[in-house]
Design a protein that fits this description.
The protein is an alpha+beta fold. Helix content is about 30%, strand content about 25%. It has 13 helices and 21 strands. It has helices at about 20-35, 85-95, 110-115, 125, 155-160, 195-210, 265-280, 290-295, 320-335, 375-390, 405-410, 415-420, 430-435; strands at about 1-5, 15, 40, 60, 70, 75-80, 100, 135-140, 145-150, 170-175, 180, 185-195, 210-215, 230-235, 250, 285, 300, 310-320, 345-350, 365-370, 395. The strands form six sheets. It has an eight-stranded antiparallel beta sheet with strand order 16-12-14-13-19-20-18-21, sandwiched between helices. The protein has a five-stranded antiparallel beta sheet with strand order 5-6-10-8-9. Strand 8 (about 135-140) and strand 9 (about 145-150) form a beta hairpin. Helix 9 (about 320-335) packs antiparallel against helix 10. The protein is globular, with a radius of gyration of 21 Å. The model has no long low-confidence stretch (mean pLDDT about 95). It binds flavin-adenine dinucleotide.
């Protein structure tokens, strides 16, 4: 069957060949035996680049009905099909006073996709990655065998699959330990900072004192305002509500725009207005979980704002020792290249170790920038950002990436070859072909 199966960056849009999940589960061995065909599970396409694509093989779309889960309210353990979304999970968990222990900035990702990318959230300093809360899962391999994996059963495959980007097999079901919370509402506090030193001086204490902490940076501000932004912290409110928010986006970009709305002029104005508005809104105030965790989910198809050529997201993590020097360099390089980032987010990762072999987070600061694709100049900028990141001892996020070189990937993840030993030979992705199976100097 042919389908769109775009990833979120929408850089490489085309019809892709897929195998319905029912067929895949029933005859995976027959499919992958057939002339060396490879497959790759596809969650909800919220990865930005090509780690969820397999253009020389077949995709297996994993979305499944939300009803396919059960929750033990006493232990807080959820048992679900890998194709349910985080939104589906919240709907079941919230009335029981339970919430996701780790959530990315969108609820439209599948349970399997969250495990396979070992996603992180605004509380990495306390709870580590999503994989830290997975107690077990079933993994279907291309030889047709289904393996129960946990820290004690098949521990090698457990570690390789968490953050393994779909390369070790199909996660069919998983068990997730949810987090007990007093309510879903968040008591949020916003503190403006004048420059990056100001941010770095506050970030560690903000992590110590709060469940959630993240910063927005005005990437376009220069001169005396360079590095200004707002530090946003939050905690679950003790007397808030447990109601699940309605599903529909309040706004939507209804069709593909013929050009990018997000250019330097519009973003300079947007950033200045955002900074001014947030700076006026200091002090603790109550907000719903949707606007705190998932503000962009409120605008359907917002990635269409980037126009037909799509967007690149660049996420780096820079170790503590080099971050104060390197983060300003990354922002400066983007300004020098006359590129404007719509969303520039800075976050401190803690030292909670992930069970994943190739998980992205490591102790340090992570900087995320989104750029409209302007072709060669954008690619040149991204290479500069890669170089600065690697020189600082950091790494670039693979599941946000569409184009990093094999050298950049392998330098950031020196243990990448370990995952290759656990990869199911019947599974492959565009990303892995490009970065792991090709020479670092090609
Ligand atoms: C607005 C927005 C905000 C985001 N914020 C964050 C954030 O804060 N933190 C963060 O870490 N990420 C963030 N992301 C990225 C997103 O959370 C991850 O890319 C997520 O893993 C995507 O899940 P998906 O279900 O869409 O999977 P896909 O993108 O479709 O696939 C992701 C990977 O999972 C594999 N996979 C999918 N299902 C299975 C399965 N059943 N078995 C085995 N492998 C499988 C795929 O092969 C692929 O390699 C954000 C993305 C967006 C669009």
């Amino acid at each position: 069957m042919l389908g769109a199966f775009d990833s979120f960056g929408r850089i490489d849009r085309r019809q892709r060949d897929a195998l319905p999940v029912g067929d895949a589960l029933a005859r995976l061995r027959a499919v992958t035996d057939r002339g060396g065909v490879t497959v790759l599970p596809f969650g909800n396409g919220r990865s930005y680049g090509d780690s969820c694509h397999n253009d020389m093989g077949l995709l297996i779309p994993m979305r499944s009905p939300s009803a396919d889960m059960s929750l033990d309210p006493e232990s807080g353990i959820l048992d679900a099909s890998a194709g349910v979304t985080l939104e589906d999970i919240i709907a079941v968990a919230a009335p029981q006073g339970l919430f996701l222990p780790v959530t990315p900035g969108t609820r439209h990702v599948t349970l399997g996709g969250a495990i396979a990318n070992d996603v992180h959230g605004k509380n990495h300093h306390l709870r580590g990655t999503f994989g830290c809360h997975i107690t077990s899962f079933e993994l279907l391999r291309s030889d047709g065998e289904s393996l129960y994996c946990s820290v004690t059963s098949n521990p090698g495959l457990f570690a390789a699959t968490i953050g393994g980007m779909g390369l070790t097999g199909i996660i069919t079901r998983a068990r997730l330990q949810l987090m007990r919370v007093p309510s879903l509402d968040i008591d949020e506090q916003i503190v403006p900072f004048g420059d990056l030193d100001d941010y770095f001086d506050r970030a560690e204490e903000a992590d110590r004192a709060n469940e959630y902490a993240v910063a927005w940076v005005d990437q376009l501000a220069s001169g005396r305002s360079a590095g200004r932004g707002v530090l946003i912290t939050g905690n679950h409110a003790s007397n808030g509500n447990r109601e699940v928010e309605t599903r529909a986006s309040r706004l939507a970009v209804p069709f593909d725009l013929p050009f990018s709305m997000l250019n330097r002029a519009s973003l300079t104005a947007f950033n200045a207005a955002y900074f001014a508005a947030k700076s006026r809104n200091t002090g603790v105030h109550r907000t719903g979980y949707g606007s705190f965790f998932y503000p962009l989910d409120g605008v359907g198809h917002w990635n269409r704002l980037y126009g037909p050529r799509g967007l690149f997201q660049h996420q780096s993590v820079i170790p503590f020792e080099t971050a104060r020097r390197t983060i300003p360099l990354l922002l400066q390089a983007s300004r020098d290249a006359a590129h404007a980032s719509f969303l520039t987010v800075l976050k401190r990762f803690g030292d909670v170790t992930s069970p994943g072999m190739l998980s992205f987070p490591k102790p340090g600061y992570t900087l995320t920038m989104d750029f409209p694709n302007r072709g060669a100049p954008t690619l040149a900028l991204l290479e500069t950002l890669d170089r600065l990141t690697i020189e600082a001892g950091g790494r670039v996020n693979p599941y946000k990436d569409q184009r990093m070189s094999a050298a950049t990937f392998q330098a950031g993840f020196p243990n990448w070859a370990e995952l290759e030993t656990w990869r199911d030979p019947g599974f492959l992705s565009n990303f892995w072909r490009r970065t792991a199976l090709s020479s670092p100097h090609s």
